[in-house]
Amino acid sequence: MNVSFFRSLTLFLLAGFVAYLGGGCRTKFDTAVVIPQNLKAGLDLPGAKLLFAQTRKACEGVYAVSDGSDVFGAEIAAKWSYTVKNKVDTTYHFSLFCEPQATYFVLEGRQVADSIIFLGYWRRLVNADVGTARFVVRRNGGARVLLAPDCCQALKPGDVVFKGMYGNGEENQKYPLTLSFNRPLNPKPFQIIAHRSGGRTSDLLPASENSVEIIRLAPELGATGVEFDIRQTKDGVPILYHDDQLNLRLTQKSGLIGPVENYTYKQLTSLVRLVNGEQIPTLEEALTAVIDDTPLQTVWMDSKLIRDMPLIREIHKKYIAKAAAQGRKVNIYIGLPTETTLNQFEALDDHLSAPSLCELDTSIARRINAKVWAPRFTLGNPVESAKVMQAAGLKVFVWTLDVPDFVRQFIDGGALDGILTNYSAIVAYYHYVQKP
Amino acid sequence: MYKSPSPMSFCRNWFIAWLVVGLAFSALAQQPAPTPARARKATAKPRSGYKQRVFNARAPGYTKKGQLRRLSPDQLWDAQPDSTRPNRGPFRLLVYAGLGASYYATPLNSPVALVDKQQLRWSIPLSLRVMWQTDHRMRLGIETGYVSMYSYKGTRNGELANVRVSATPILAVFSMSVVKRFALYAGTGPYRINSNLQYDGDTQGTTYSLGWMAAGTYTQPLGKNIGIAAELKWYDATQTKDACFIAQATLVWRALTW
Q: Which domain CATH number covers B121?
């Protein structure tokens, strides 16, 4: 063993280390964000009652943050949503949207004696920070008003005060957080459309992108609508899947690789699971979840690779009718991102009456009688074009906006009817706190 | 905002990592190792009447028995200390053909929906490597081959499902002889990953996965241009998280010398 041997060995180990670093940038993908569980047990107190609809509605608003403003910002927007499980079990979630680092809270509330308690978790979408939070609205802190049978006439600033504590991770809540009602939410109709059915798998959400589970989660994150990515299997079944290949970004390791269109639906349901263990859903399963399980109002069916547009249109019509039959106001649009899908769509006999969303030129959107024109955000804030299109009866959605400064600028422009985003909580914050 | 590493940045990291490795190897190869023996040689005055023995690597000498003298990497190096001079060599083209056993060494989670599952991680890999042996320590080459990474089977509603996954590496390989007959290898490049599913029909899939390899060989000469090597190797197709450990016997053929 001479010096050169050890030098070579050292270099070889160095090579291995550098190679390890090269692969190490994937580590963040594998880091699980563990949402605190079993929080509901803290709400099951003797005598605890669910909140009435008018009480829930009255809780919504923009709150000023006193204790905790250095962490969660000076203002928080609070909004209720719901999820239905098994068609009968409805759970109401009280979501709080904050400006710093795309932070949101998901809470559940109960009336306990003459107070209202809220318990849940918080999460920052820009990293893996999570924690728990607990709030109490005492009788003299606004609970008397909120729980009154005739609740609630216009609340004034300071009428309702949430005295709370929060903690990091699974630790006990030990930091104070106080919210004081300031004003109602921005009432302007606006669609917050969650990309990939709710959010990206890479953002370490508790459900995989384009799954039924993330659709059910989307309202808690602030979404009022969702965008699906539609492909068709080898045997023609429309499914939700974003990428053109089966890969580890979206699915658990199964040995199946290559284009998703090469596999039959039976093969995919039997052998492939999304990253968090869900099945790849069919388009019909996804639309059923939207209509039956959530308060979502908009569905943007992005046509990634469609061979059978008439089939998509049949499903489209079926679920528009289903929503109407259930009294749900859900706008379901066939998304047209390319000339290919546009040609397929225009080949439909009833394409002029089919609600569609056109990502192409304004003239094309008008020609096909699209209900929505959706330019990409990199073209700039389309204030003037939006006015023209809105005058022609179209809505204008912009995709895909994630950067907080851009979100604020586009919302402040006031020309849009909706924004497609990976971070619904950010858009929800900037929209709801905007003063009319 | 939180930005996930994109495939582009992943490739860039790999490129930079291997650029660093390549430059480090190259830098090392351009400098004579400061062994005590070399230091003595460099400072010693030639004795009068003594003809110093000089190895000529381009025309290797013969032993007293008339056999071709095999030169170790260090001897080659001593014979040609200045690799920048115009008259360089010798250069050789070495061909390695290997056969052995592989073990799939990363977690394998066959689908939970299957029952009566059976997994197979062992296989018999083949490899073919062509290396350009330069007149300094680093060798460059390419490697390919075939390794069946893993397979599994199970039943779903009474119907048999069978999945096989194999890989064909297409790697750029660097090698360095660290002591006589012992060499280390490092390589990077894409792996062509193939899958075959037999369930509800027969479906093939293919993708390319960027990865790397590392290996160590001990070579025993068998003849003038033939040798046999014992080789331990790690194949890692990083993007698809497939990796296997290989132990194989490799036939080494010195195909060309110039």
A: 2.40.160.20
Q: Are residues B24 and A254, on separate chains, in Cβ contact within 8 Å?
A: no
Average pLDDT value over all residues in chain A: 90
pLDDT at B113: 85
Q: Is residue B41 part of a domain?
A: no
B199 to A271: CB separation less than 8 angstroms, yes or no: yes
CB atoms closer than 10 angstroms to residue B23:
10
What are the residue boundaries of the structural domains of chain A, listed by start? 39-183, 191-433
Of A1, A257, A403, the CB nearest to B1: A403
Residue A287 burial (10 A CB sphere; 0-12, 13-18, 19+)? buried
* Contact call for B152 and A127, based on CB within 8 A: no
Give residues 92 to 121 of A whose Cβ lies within 8 Å of B: 102
Number of domains in chain B: 1
With a threshold of 0.95, tell me whether the complex ipTM lies above it: no
Burial label for B143, CB within 10 Å (0-12, 13-18, 19+), is buried
Q: Best mutation site among B200, B232, B241 for testing chain A: the one with the most A CBs within 10 Å?
A: B200
The pLDDT of residue B74 is 59
| Cβ within 8 Å, pair A270-B112 | no
Could you tell me how far CA A68 lies from the centroid of its own chain? 25
At position A52, the amino acid (one-letter code) is: F
The yes-or-no verdict on residue B4 having pLDDT over 50 is: no
Task: Count Cβ atoms below 10 Å from residue A343 Cβ, excluding itself.
Answer: 11
What's the fold here for domain A191-433?
Answer: TIM Barrel (3.20.20)
Residue-range definition of the domain harbouring residue B237: 89-257
Q: How far apart are CA A175 and CA B236, in angstroms?
A: 46
